[in-house]
Each structure stands twice: as structure tokens, then as C-alpha cells.
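User: Teach me something about this protein's shape.
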Amino acid sequence: MEIPSDLIAAATERRLIPFIGAGFSAPIGLPDWDSLLRQIAAEVEPSLTYEEIANYANDDHLQIAEYLYLKSNKKIGPLRHFIAKNLHHTGDITRSTSHVELVNLKAPQIYTTNYDELIEDSYRRLGVPYRAIALGRDVSEASGTATQIVKYHGDLRHEDTLVLTESSYYKRLDFDSPMDIKFRADLLGRSVLFMGYSFRDINIRIIWFKLNQMMMDIPAADRRQSYILRLKSNPVLEALYEAAGLKTIVLDPPDSEGGLGSPWSNRAGTGFAPITSTGALLATLANKVETADGGRDNAAPLFVSKMMIDEAHRESSANPLANISAVENIFERSIPYGLEEEAQNLTLSMLNKKPQTWKLSSNLILASQSIGPSEDLTWHVVRILLEDSTETFREDLLSSSSVSWGVVWSAPLKSGECEQVLERFEREIGYHRGAAGDMDLAFAIDLALRIKYQGLARPYDERRTRRIETLLMSAQALYPRVADVSPIRNGPPDPSWLKQELNDGIVRQRHLTKDPDEVYALKKRRSYDFVDPDDVINPASPIRPPK
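Assistant: First, the predicted structure itself:
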């Protein structure tokens, strides 16, 4: 689907009013209007089945509710009790993508015909200011920058505000309550996006038609286009909505194949990616808001949603860790408490892949070190130190003041990983003997010393230790300063000694070549020659352990 450009503009300008129905909370297990009435009927009128009641009431939800109200002795209290019991949600609302992305939208006003407090709960859990408006005095006191959550059909805390039955609904169509006056005022220059409504819900089309009739005296420029979101196309209803002034947006089918982009990509909403859920639509709009806020120093950060983590898992499993939108954006957002464990698992899993941008790699390092020591983090950093293709990564890594090296070195490498370090060490000696030396040797020596003396590999392996000693002597035969190398236990590698050695040109005039093709050709020779006693400056000189 393609999101209308004027809807995107309304979101970025904070001129979009989300209007929420019962279907909005259906993905997290709350009943829709039909299911709710079915559960109430089972307790209020057990002598008839719900199907019988619905048949006698012509499948009209308002009539069904009116009948149940009459069977409760015209008291709203019993219905309120059953509604509250059936709308109770025990899970963490921050795991609902729709609710988190609704907060991310940063809309000044949100209207809802729902009786539950899930929208308010999502704002509370995320620590975002809001003000619930259900009474006339709430309307008069509404001010400030906090999002207004308007309970358009009432709040369960106040029985007399509930619009539930046929009679209360028809009375509401007079549009003379403080809530209606506020709605008319809020509509000026704004668009409304209805979400979570089906054709059998309280008839939003009629409400919208009457409201538009009352606003005919308002200039067309002050009445923006509004929309209703539907799960699938219905040409009859779409024509009826269009006649009432509402355009229909239809979600993509659930099995739509992904294309370029995602809801968190700047290209989302322009036909590149399917939008198959309300959460995905809100995520796309919220990302547009975030992009518009990019230049604002005081712009509040957005929050990670469950769908965003799922999308990041999908992206990271299907691609190398390039500049992928969902993965990148996770590190730019706040993580709700209910999603912390999943975000941590995602971070650790991505450490085993090779990022293609330093920004992503550094974000992975910072996020994982906040979790604590891990083999994945240690090996991720070791790979950066050893691989030729990460030269710029390595420079950024060593210059970063945010890397906690104590955490990085706290987890030991696996046996196979140690072997890779030593194989690289061995190759580097061969390269340097062929006069194609670069700084990789300094990092291989640093890691080998940490493996031998600082517990970077456990348990102790005598064969590996002997191999390290042999390699260190080979390296010392080339560069005497190897004997003085002493890695800082909780610090980064320091290759300055090799730079000095190469600059001095004392040993065989070895130098850093500046010709990449020459380096590659020499490295392809794979000269793995070991120490030559004639080359050792002082064969008796020990390789001193780090301090």
C-alpha cells in the first residue's frame, strides 16, 4: 500500500488525530465489540444464547447492548462491571507494537471509543506525559504539551459517561456535550485517522457524516482529508465512507512479500515495503515524524517496538549487517523494559555477524558491553583488530572513549578462536619477513600475550602456550621491541612500538608499503617461516610477561 502524502504531512506537522476503536487492541487478546457483548450476554441473560439475542436484534450491536441494559434493570453498573472484567489486560502493554508506535507518533490528541485504559497504560509504562479527558471539567482544564487522550464514549471510572446502549448512542448524536464541542474545535486544520473499526462497530460513518454537516460553514481549507483504516477492501463500505467524507486505506495482505525498505526506512510508505498491520502503518508514520524531528535538539527519542525487533531479526538473518534501517534504528531509540531481554538477545546474535558500517559496529559494542562480558563481544572486537578489511573500524575502535576495555577482555576466547588469532600471528610474521609489513602484527602480538598471560583463553593449554612462545621469538627476531610489549589489562592495544620500530628502520630497513597491490601479492605468498637463530638479536633475551 502507499500512504497518502497528505496523511504523512499531517503526521509530521502534528496535525493528525488518531481515533481508536476496539479492534486496535485485538492483536493483544482483548475482545472486539462483538466478543465483548457475547461475554456480557452470557452473564446477564443466560436464558438465551448470544446467537438468539443477536438474531432477534437484527445483529445490531446497539440494540443488543440496549437489551442487556434493560435485563440489568436499566442499571449501567452491572454492564460496567462485566466490561471492566473482560477488558482486563495482564501483559506488558509495551509489547504491543500498535500501542508503542502510537506513542511514537507524538500526536497532540488521541480520541478513542474504547473503555479500557490500555492507551493510558502505554503512556505510563513509557514515561510519556498524557492527560485523560472523560468529563466536562477535563475539557476545560486541558492545557500544556502532554498528549490528550479523549475517552469519546466514556471512561469506566465514571459510569455516567459511558456511551454503550442504543439510547445513549442516539442521545450522543445531538453533538452538544463538552466532548463533542472539543472534537469540533480539534478538527480545525487537522486530519483524523480511524483505526480498529469494523463494519459492525458503533457506526463511525454516521458520526462523521453528522459532524461534517455541522461544519459546513467552516472553509474547506480548514477541513483536511480524513481516513479510515481497514484490514481488507470492501467496495460498498468504501463508497459509503467516501460519501461521508472519509477515504479508506486498506492494509496489504498478511502474506505480502517484503521489498526494499521497512516501516523504519525513510523510503517506507512510498510503495517499497508492504504494510500489513496497524502497527506497521503507525511505525511508518512515526518514522516520518522522527525524520522531521531530526534537527530538533529537544526532540524526545522514540521507543523500540516489538515489530521493530522482529524486523531486525529478519534483516540480520537475511543480510550482512549493512546499514539496515530496523537494526540501525534500534540503537537510536529507548528500549521499553518489557523488550529489554529480546533486544539484548538480538544484540548478542548480531555480534557474530560482520557489520559493514562502523556506526553499527560501535552501537553493537556499546549495547552489548552494557549487558556485561560475553564471548560474543570479545570475539567481535578481536575480529576488528585482526581483519584487514576493518582498518578504519580499528582506528575508530582505538580512538573511541566509550569502549569499556575491561568488559571486552573479561570473557575468554574459545579454543577455535584462539587458533585463528595464532594463525593470523603466524601469517603476519611471514608478511613482515617479506617486507610487506603493516600494523596487523602489533595487534596479533597483543592478543597472543593476552591469551598467554591475561586469561584471554581458558583453560590453560600447554601446546598453545609453546606455540605462542615460538611465534613471539620469531617476531622478536624481526623487531627487538617485541620483548618490551606489555598489554594494559583493561586497556586497548597499543601498536606504537611497531610504528617506532618501522620508522627507525633499524632492523633490515623494513617499512610499511604504500602500494595495496604489492601488499596483497606479498601476503599471497603465505611465507610461514619460523624463527631463524641467526636473525635473533639476543637469543637469550626472554619475552617478558605483561605487567
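Now, about its shape. The longest strand covers residues 16-20. Residues 267-271, 506-514, 522-547 have pLDDT under 50 and may be disordered. If you'd like, I can walk through any region in more detail.
User: That's plenty for now, thanks!
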